[in-house]
Every structure is written in C-alpha cells, then in structure tokens.
Known about the structure:
Layout: E1 2-7, H1 15-24, E2 30-35, H2 62-71, E3 74-80, H3 88-95, H4 98-105, E4 116-123, H5 131-143, E5 146-149, E6 153-155, H6 167-181, E7 186-189, E8 192-195, H7 207-223, E9 229-233, E10 247-253, H8 259-268, E11 271-275, E12 283-287, E13 296-302, H9 306-320, H10 322-338, H11 343-361
Parallel strand pairs: 1-2, 1-3, 3-4, 4-5, 4-6, 10-13
Antiparallel strand pairs: 7-8, 9-10, 11-12, 12-13
Amino acid sequence: MKTLILNGSPRKNGDTAALIGKITEKLTGECKIIDAYTCAVSPCVDCRYCWEHSGCAINDEMQRVYDYIRECDNIIIASPVYFSELTGKLLDLGSRLQTFYCAAAFRKETPIVRPKKGAVILVGGGDGHMDRAYGTACVLLRQMNCRLIHPPVCSRNTNTLPAAEDRNAILGTESIVRFFEDPGGAYREGNLKMRTKHVIVLPYDEIWERDFLKIRDEIRDALGQTALAIEHVGSTSVRGLSAKPIIDIDVVIEDSSALDSAIASLERIGYRHEGDLGIPGREAFKYDGKDHLRKHHLYVCPKDSAELKRHIAFRDYLRCHPEAVREYSRVKEEGARLWPYDIEKYIEHKTPFIERIYAEIGIRDM
C-alpha cells in the first residue's frame, strides 16, 4: 500500500507535522511526504499547454509528484488553516493539478486510472471555520481520483492545546489509518457479495451543529411553511456524544396530506424521494450534488409520527443525562473498533444500550 501526504505547513515540527507523524507511525506500507514549502514546485501560470497536451509545460519537481499521484493508493492533504483556507504554498501545488482536470474536460482522457482513498487533516490556532479549507481539499482530492474521502480530522485552538495532545484529533488519525487499511469491506451473505459500510465513529465535534444549520437553512428556504420544524436528531445532535459524522434530520409536516408538496419542493433542490424504506411514519430522501454540505440523512415525518417522537425523545434524554452520553460514547467507540467493516454488527453491539434507554423513558408506549 502506498500513501502520498501533501503537507501544507511551513513548520517542520508544528501541529500539522505532529498529526502526520501519528499517521505514519501506524500506517503500513510506503509513505511519501511532499512538503509544499520546501519542494521546488511553481504555481500554474495558465499557459493552457495542458488543454491540448498531456503533462505540464513547467519542468520542475511537480513532474515527480504527478508520478506519485498516479502510483499511490491513498492521498492525505494536511495543512494549517490560514484565513479559513489551505496555505498558499499548498494551493500553489494544488493549482498544478489543472493538467488532470484538462485531460478529462478537454482531451477526454483518463489521466489517473487507479482509484484512491483520501483524507484531510486541518489544524488552526483559533476556533474559526474550517469548512472552506476542507471543501478546497476535497476538490483537489477528487482531481486526483479519490473516490472515497474520510471525514475531516481537525485540531482547533492549537495555540492553547497542541495537536499532539488533542485526543479528538489523535483518534481521528487512527480512524484514517483504519479507513486506508480497509481491504474493501466485502462479505458474503447467502450467494451475494455485499459491500459493508466502513464504520467510523469520531469524538463530538462542534462543527456538526454548524453543518446542521447550513443544511437546515437550505431545506427551510425550499419548503417554506410546509415544514413545521426541522429537527437535528441522531448522535451528532447531542453535545459530547461520539458519533458517525453524518447529520440526521427530520423535517416535520402537518400530516400525510402535506407530503406531496414536500416531495416536490425537495426535488427542486436535488433530493429524491425513496419511500419509507420499511419504517412507517418516516419518508426517506436521497440526494446528489451537494458537496457543499456535510453528508446527511433526510427524513420527512408527520407531526404525530411515532418514529419522530422516538427520535426526539431519545435525543432529549441524552441531552439531559451526561452520564448516559459518556456511556453511549464508550459503547459506540467500542463497536466501531470491534466491527469496523460490518455496520450490522455495529448496530447490534449498541442495541442493548438503546433498548435500555427506550424502556427507561417508556418510548414503546408512544
């Protein structure tokens, strides 16, 4: 296994380097680190050579980086965040990926055959937004044919808490290692070869609330008064709770008579109705083309839906019981370690805790 790490930090022993070190000390196979501040790579000058020719007209160290990109299995972009963006030197290097874009867009070629996995590590001295930097990194990773991208691993407030001591960030690097070393996550069920989801559970991140608000605002603008409420549910809605970094959202409508209107409005902004998927009182929606938003699950529920009441009651119980949050975090983290490539086993592992809470709050009687 070959991993390419694009390091956007000017500091040899800084916070970015510390998290890169956590990766390289556990990752098997060959690791190649390209330091954006020391490598001899010039930025793209928009000469448009690559519109008609393969490669790049600038003959510098980037030619060697192109070879690494084609050969590797995994790519990590690691960078400090400067004014909400990746560092300038890393962006210089990223601009040279223009040749890959032009190969596909203008010459109708496939510049990188081998599909890859990608990951992003970001560090910052403040507690500001890292969304823009992550979005840019994902654009660059996709240009390098990264088909699967791990959720961002972030270390904030490094002025007061060094990344090397940031438990959340360190757990995130361990998750990246497991993600890269996943051989495919396939298992046999009967006569069918089924792909399983890679179970990634991360410590609570405050950015999840901001991610929900971005999704909520987009949905609210589309639905208008059809939506009585837009609820953040699931584990990412509970402060302090470890979770898979996927936002669960319940849109509340008056009753089933409002469903057709909701479906039509959501279709206009890119969501497709999938039906209740076997769970009455909860209509599921799928989406495409929403790279500006965190991955999320969207459901529409009548206000008297038992499933909606279940989601709200479980969320509100956890919000009021910090000891249950700590216990549930331990259960989920343990399940992800035991069953990293089997989502069904992971769910089975945490079910006893959930059922105990349901019984405690009488949720079955709703």
